[in-house]
Design goal:
Shape: globular
Number of strands: 13
Strand content: 15-25%
Number of helices: 11
Distance between the termini: 36 Å
Bound molecules: uridine-5'-diphosphate-4-deoxy-4-fluoro-alpha-D-galactose
Structural class: alpha/beta
Helix content: 25-40%
Strand order of the largest sheet: 3-2-1-4-5-6-11
Radius of gyration: 19 Å
């Protein structure tokens, strides 16, 4: 019995591998290092003491995926992380996003069908809630509101999975809607290492703190929020990873299709996050106040009760932990994995 983790060298994938091993699961990692580094595999070994079986594989390549499943008949569940995830890039290259994200999932699901693998965890996103009419979002909030091609790939894949589960009553699928994952493993050995200029708030703050940028950017100060800056539900990546372990356990109860928000239930503004980061590094950061970023919403945070009640999972780490661990990773690895 083993869990295949596609994108297992990536940011969320690597943290999930650590927690799966800690929970006693056998793991197989598949990754093509499109947005990750082979160094992650060494770091995982240092953290866990386990040499995790690894297959270099593009999830869109049918032959490679077939070979992967044939070589590892012990796989009986898949956590599918491997996908493109940059919102702005998806607007520039919609076809690449639909092809890679939907095509990759289809290739994996077809191989699972051929090999009789019935358990699947899908990386969805709070982006499926679009600009929510009310917060917090529950799993029953309308989830067809994507505002960019990346988001639509998540909405569409959720629908594909619902259709699949109608057709095959033996399939067990956990759709996990992530809010804003940040932070890093407390060891400082694995963390987020974006290519180029970071799009997301936390890696940008971390790289400004290390001196790569003169100031942090605050996109919009006139939102209808307490301090005028955008509010999100930031969740420690280790808590998120543990949510996947809880979801895998749920699949093995033969639950059919289930959908969960993975968030803390707390919203923090951009300025509150910057303040927490300043506390972690022990000094103030320069701020560059800019207009709103196109496509951003004012506020989004999760109602995480369903995951608590049905998975027995709740996020444990605070915003201060998230910032301290992010800084521990960034200061120990100023260039990420690219030394
Ligand atoms: N922000 C800044 N400065 C920055 C970057 C971001 O002020 O340098 C602000 C944004 O305007 C927003 C908040 O910080 O108010 C969070 O922005 P992120 O880019 O970190 O995250 P988003 O909420 O925009 O998007 C994230 C993921 C998406 C996912 C979405 C789900 O990047 O993949 O959450 O809600 F779809």
């Amino acid at each position: 019995m083993a869990i295949l983790v596609t994108g297992g060298a990536g940011y969320i994938g690597s943290h999930t591998v650590v927690e799966l091993l800690a929970a006693g699961y056998e793991v197989v990692i598949a990754d093509n290092f499109y947005n990750s580094s082979p160094k992650v595999l060494d770091r995982l070994k240092t953290i866990t003491g386990v040499d995790v079986p690894f297959v270099e594989c593009d999830v869109c390549d049918k032959d490679q995926v077939e070979n992967l499943f044939s070589a590892h008949p012990e796989i009986d569940a898949v956590i599918h992380f491997a996908a493109y995830k940059a919102v702005g890039e998806s607007v520039e290259k919609p076809l690449d996003y639909y092809e890679n994200n939907i095509g990759g999932a289809m290739t994996i699901l077809q191989a699972m069908k051929r090999h009789g693998v019935k358990n699947f965890v899908f990386s969805s996103s709070a982006t499926v809630y679009g600009d929510p009419e009310t917060v917090p979002c529950t799993e029953d909030s309308p989830a067809n509101g994507a505002t960019n091609p990346y988001g639509w790939t998540k909405v569409m894949q959720e629908q594909i999975l619902r259709d699949l589960c109608v057709s095959d009553k033996k399939m067990n699928v956990a759709i996990l809607r992530y809010f804003n994952p940040i932070g890093a493993h407390p060891s400082g050995l694995i963390g987020e290492d974006p290519n180029g200029i970071p799009n997301n708030l936390l890696p940008y703050i971390a790289q400004a703190a290390i001196g790569k940028y003169p100031a942090v950017r605050v996109f919009g100060t006139d939102y209808p929020t307490p301090d005028g800056t955008g509010v999100r539900d930031y969740i420690h990546v280790v808590d998120l990873a543990k949510g996947h372990v809880a979801a895998v356990k749920k699949l093995f109860t033969k639950c059919g299709l289930v959908t969960y928000n993975l968030g803390t239930g707390n919203g923090y503004s951009v300025l509150q996050v910057i303040k927490a980061y300043e506390k972690a590094i022990g000094r103030e950061l320069e701020k560059n106040y800019l207009p709103r970023r196109a496509g951003d919403i004012a506020e989004n945070y999760a109602d995480p009760r369903k995951a608590r009640e049905e998975l027995g999972w709740t996020a444990q780490y605070t915003i201060d932990d998230m910032c301290a661990h992010s800084w521990n990773w960034q200061s120990n690895n100023p260039n990420g994995y690219k030394e």
